[in-house]
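Lecture notes, structural biology module. Today: joint structure prediction for complexes of two components.
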Amino acid sequence: MTQIFTVTDLNQRIADRLENDVRLHDLWARGEVSNYLHHRSGHRYFTLKDQGSQISCVLFKNNGLTLDFELKDGKNVLVFGDVAVYRPQGRVQLVARGIKQDEGLGFRHLQLEQLKKKLAGEGLFAQERKRALPLYPERIGIVTSPQGAALRDVLRTLGPYPARIILSPAQVQGEGAEESIASALYALQGRADVIIVCRGGGSTEDLWCFNSEIVARAIFACDSPVISAVGHETDVTIADYVADMRAATPTAAAKMAVPDVEEIKEELRSTQVRMMRALWTGLERKEERLEYLKHNVSAKRMYSLARDARQRLDYLSQSLDAAQADKMQILRSRLELAEGRLAAVGPRATLLRGYGIARSQKGLILKAQDARPGDVLELILGHGRLLCRVLECRDDEEAT
Amino acid sequence: MKKDEIGLEEALDSLEQIVEVLEEGKMTLEESLDQYEKGMKLVKLCNARLEGAQRRIECLTGELPPDLS
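The predicted structure, tokenised, for the full assembly:
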């Protein structure tokens, strides 16, 4: 026979069923507070909801005493308690025994975790696919708001490093930001050696666009390494996971992107010293140095190099520390020595030692047969020249 | 940067190679001199690149804010 319940009995039966189910006890539920009412009795009533559904909640006075934050509409919370049926209205509700603030963004946070899992599964965060940053980028792409402080921080930090800076403007918060960032990234395709995508600090809400799937995929699709710098140190977004490098701040990103100009200059100074030292060491090692020089290398060329090197050293030593400067002093004296020796190889020094160069209109006179009696020759001396007439041409070897 | 212009990275790399070859000391003097001269040219080029660098900022869409251009 069909059983007929009174409404009271029916709700009692439902209540018995739900309240005896251990799966509906001692549970945590996550959602957003709405319809909040702090009744004068001290009990608090509200609705916990997410995008798809809602449930009534009650926090009785005693349980509410330990609440350490202000409960209000719009708050994302984690509620701990048991499911019960409010019999007078036949309403299923969650009787809260404790409520915590949800530091994340409730439902969105859950979505974020799912997206993270999905992208990780596809290998977007994989360490193996992270690319190394170029040492000396020629073109630096920046995706950010042209108005933001982040851009100015980046530009200041890039400092005097010689590179082309290509700004690809993007809207970095609010409606449409995700699409804007993604297309700004795509626009840098083939135009940059390294890309910085950044924005300054802001609320979790403000930074949220960097947690979107299309931004993640746009970063992944970039043809050059990407450095992400979103918000402050503690803010880590999906963009940071996908990027080849994550910087804590826009300033830090710029530091990663380029080498220190002063360091390069220092490197260049020491390179010059190394080259000079190596060259002169080689020079001093050659045993028949002077012979070698006469036959193979223009003494003039060596001499001018030695002089040039010494002047360069003088200039360099102004910018080096004391220990380096000492080493340079040794190198300098070696160079001076070399200069002296090289000067001696040149024809002028030879002439000053008492030799002369004879030449006619036809060229240098190296043998007696190069001239004929009666020819007029020019004799070049250490100082001045003589015009001479040949009296006789003798082939005898003793003369030398 | 023009295509035929040597980049900073390339210049610094060749410079490093030149220094190594010079320090090995296996070349004839003439070869050493050639390398040395080449090296000094590269140093000059790098320095010029670093000193003469003026910031070049371009904007892909729209105008640069006045404080940056």
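Point to remember: The first helix of chain A runs from residue 7 to 19.
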